[in-house]
Amino acid sequence: MPDATVTALRGTLVSFTDDPFLADPARAFRHQPDGLVICRDGVIEAAGPYDSIRSTLPPDTPIADYSGCIISPGFIDTHVHYVQTGIIAAPGKELLQWVSDYVYPVEEAFAEEAYAREVAAFFCDALIRNGTTTAVVYCAVYPQSVDALFAEAQMRNMRIIAGKCMMDRNVPDALRDTARSGYDQSKALIGKWHGKGRLLSALGRIEHAGPA
User: Fold this and answer.
1) CATH number (domain holding residue 57)
2) Could you give the number of structural domains in the chain?
3) What is the mean pLDDT of the chain?
4) According to a count of CB atoms within 10 Å of the terminal CB, is the N or C end of the chain lower?
5) CA-CA distance, 161 to 121, in Å (whole number)?
6) Global pTM?
7) Does the structure show a pLDDT above 60 at 158?
């Protein structure tokens, strides 16, 4: 077997062992001013004080020095709509009016797979750039919007849990499902993507937002 690839990162380590809102923040929070993270074949093998674990590295292992920077586990976003990326910070209105004026039109564009792929690539890059490596993501009603997201996430080795929305009323005709189409398309997406690499499938909620 080939030798394992060992890499190391040096910097300020920040992590949590508990929920600081439910436990003593002093115990829930870990801060190591000069820390070292050791990875073997892309998997974290050890993390701790630089002076204590530096000696466990194989000789001549290069250390990427990020002293003065924070190294933290990836963030997890438990609810995000990638198909609404293009309307972030759109002018505020009452919710149903905002949905009608902004959300529905932008989501209809995801019927075009090329457009969905372009937005999915931008979305995944934005997550990674901000330290988010895992997310539960709502897609559009169109199966191709799910395909686009999963394809881009797989290229970046991200853990994404996603699925198509299922909406059968109170939406424009272009975004309307039936119970049968929602079931059949979701079943096909699960068979295609669930458990592939770090990807997981989810069932989108049935939305009854209000008059379209």
Assistant:
1) 2.30.40.10
2) 2
3) 91
4) N
5) 16
6) 0.82
7) yes
